[in-house]
Amino acid sequence: MTTARPTATITISGLRRLTGAEPGEIEALIGAGQIDRPDGDRVPMISAVQSYLAHLRETSRNASASAAMARARDARAEASELALAIARRDLIQDSEAETATDFLCGVIADQIGGLPARCTRDMRDRRAIEDALRKVQEAIAADLAAAD
After folding, report:
1. Domain-by-domain residue ranges, the chain?
2. Between 94-113 and 123-147, two packed helices, what is the crossing angle to 10 degrees?
3. What is the spatial distance between Cα 67 and Cα 74, in angstroms, rounded to a whole number?
């Protein structure tokens, strides 16, 4: 004749300490029927721990899926914002565009300023070239100012 083996039990607070569960987490699993209803304050230890581990695995899977969905949603939102910026032709802020334009104009002016000396050693010819280039630069500046 065989006798039934007694099932090891554990208190709910002991299960919480054993698993490191948050307050109310074990009770929620009992309420959802994932952990057997307690006999007083005690639950079957092995099935309760197995149920808690299954709960952790499911939570982990859901968290990973949620994170992936959030990353995909963020990527779609960023792509939409970029498409809208392209349609508006508003890809960079105006202050950044002005800074870039000022830099480019400075580089061009520096290079143009050195042309007369590279073209001739004759001072009279050099002054004539400088005057012609200055007039061209003033005309470009006037055109750019009129475009604003």
Report:
1. 9-64, 92-147
2. 170
3. 10
Exposed, middle or buried: residue 26 (CB in 10 Å: 0-12, 13-18, 19+)?
buried
Secondary structure (3-state) at 148: coil
Comparing CA positions, the residue from 30, 28, 22, 55 lying closest to residue 10 is 30
Q: Is the dihedral of CA 68, 74, 78, 79 positive or negative?
A: positive
Q: Is the pLDDT of residue 136 over 70?
A: yes
CA distances to 73, 141, 143 from 148, rounded to whole Å, are 39, 11, 9
Q: What percentage of the chain exceeds 70 in pLDDT?
A: 95
Q: Give the CA angle between residues 99, 111, 124 to the nearest 5°.
A: 135
Contact yes or no for 40/9 (Cβ under 8 A):
no
What is the model's pLDDT at position 69?
86
Q: What is the amino acid identity at position 144?
A: L
Give 21's contacts (C-beta < 8 A, 6+ positions apart): 15, 52
With CA atoms as reference, report the closest residue to 42 among 14, 10, 90.
10
Residue with tokens 């054993």: 18
Q: Rounded to an integer, what distance in angstroms lies between the CA atom of residue 130 and that of residue 132?
A: 5
- In the numeric block, the tokens 């083996």 are attached to 5
